[in-house]
Every structure is written in C-alpha cells, then in structure tokens.
Write a structure and sequence with these properties.
Shape: globular
Number of helices: 9
Number of domains: 1
Number of strands: 2
Strand content: under 5%
Order of helices and strands: HHHHHHHHEEH
Radius of gyration: 18 Å
C-alpha cells in the first residue's frame, strides 16, 4: 500500500532561490521537514482538528459569558488550528485556497506566539491554575503552531488579495478582543488576572493587548516578505 498516497501527496514545489528554496529567514524549516508535512498531510490535518476540539472545550466557560453574536471572536487558537486544517485539506484534495492559507498563516503565527507570551509574562498564576502538565502542553503546542505555519509557502505565494483578507480579519479580531467590542465586553482569551490589575507600569489588559498588536503585524510582514522573495525569483 502506498502510505504517501493514503496519508498525503507529493509536496508542491515552491521557492525563489536556485535550489528551489526561499531565504531561511522567511522559510526556516528544513525542506525535508516541509516534505514530511505534505506527504503525511492528513495526519497533520487530524492533529489540528483534535487541537481545535480541545480548544473549543477549553473555551467552554468563556463561551457561556459572551453573547452568541460575538462567539466568532472568542476561540482564537482553535480557530487558527481549524484554518490550517482546512487550508491543508483543501490542498490535499486539489482545491488549494490562497485565502485559507493566508488566514491560517496569520492565525498560527499570531496565536502560536501570543499564547506563550502571556503564559511566560503571567506565569505565576497560569502555572498555579492550570498545573505544570497543562501549562507545558499549552506552551509547546502553541510553539508547534508557529512551526507548521512555515510550511504554507509551499502551497501559496500569498497574493495581495489573500493577505488583505487575512489582515482585515485579524485586525477586526484584535479590535473585538481588546478595544471596541460591538456587543458586550472584550473577547480576548481569559487571563488569570483581572484586566484592570496593575502590572509594572501598566495593566494586565494592556500587556496582553500590546503583544497582540505586535503579533498581528509580524505575520503581515512575513507574508508580504515571502511574496516579494518568491516574485524576486
């Protein structure tokens, strides 16, 4: 039985350099690791769907506190893992979507870095409330989200329209999470301290929001840089 045929496809060729590779700073993963992700793409999809299911369970109490109309802005990390599962699955069936890939790229980098950021910054209470095992799982699994985002350049060159849609969605999500919720209160992931609690020279909410703002810009820069490097080739 052809394992690759059952679990994935031969990886797409992407890159701008003579050896078919983008510069390391926009495509940091070894080519062999990218190949494995595509040859076993249905395994990667399944893992992300399991992560999505766990994430929705993790947010269950927050869903209960937020108006139904705002639920789309609540499950940040599981939303990102769902997007990359859909993006990779669409490629696997021969219907790849630049828009899905861009949304998945933004989400997995932004949330894959933001969660470790707040876990480290607010570690005393996070560690006390979640316990060492869950704390370690959340930290490692979210860093894994960042790594998997860097396989997506093999299936898209991040056209401007797709990047614009991803930028618009994650900017809107940022506004709902921290600044101007349309209905009810802000929808950011629950933190182990009250939002107004002082934290050094600012507050807990402002520390979390600052990280989210920066980490919305990072994937935008990386997506456009990847496009530039691809076109340059």
């Amino acid at each position: 039985m052809d394992i690759v045929g059952a679990l994935g496809r031969d990886p797409p060729e992407r890159g701008s350099a003579e050896d078919g590779r983008l510069p390391r700073w926009v495509a940091p993963l070894p080519a062999a690791l990218e190949d494995v992700a595509y040859r076993f793409v249905w395994v990667v999809v399944a893992i992300n769907l399991l992560g999505t299911a766990f994430g929705f369970w993790y947010y269950r109490f927050q869903f209960a506190r937020v108006p139904v109309e705002m639920w789309a802005f609540v499950p940040d990390s599981p939303g990102a893992t769902l997007l990359i599962a859909l993006a990779l699955a669409s490629w696997a069936v021969g219907r790849e979507s630049d828009t899905l890939a861009a949304l998945a790229f933004f989400g997995n980098i932004k949330l894959g870095l933001w969660t470790p950021y707040v876990l480290v910054v607010f570690y005393p209470e996070f560690l006390a409330t979640s316990g060492p095992a869950l704390y370690a799982f959340l930290l490692v699994s979210h860093l894994g989200m960042v790594l998997q985002a860097f396989v997506l350049h093999r299936m898209t060159d991040f056209p401007v329209r797709a990047v614009a849609i991803a930028t618009a969605w994650y900017t809107l999500d940022l506004l709902m999470d921290y600044f101007v919720p349309v209905i009810g209160g802000v929808t950011h992931t629950s933190l182990p301290y009250p939002d107004p609690q002082p934290w050094f020279t600012t507050t807990v909410l402002q520390v979390a929001a600052a990280g989210a703002v920066v980490l919305t810009v990072v994937p935008l820069f990386l997506a456009l840089a990847t496009r530039v490097e691809t076109l340059r080739g």
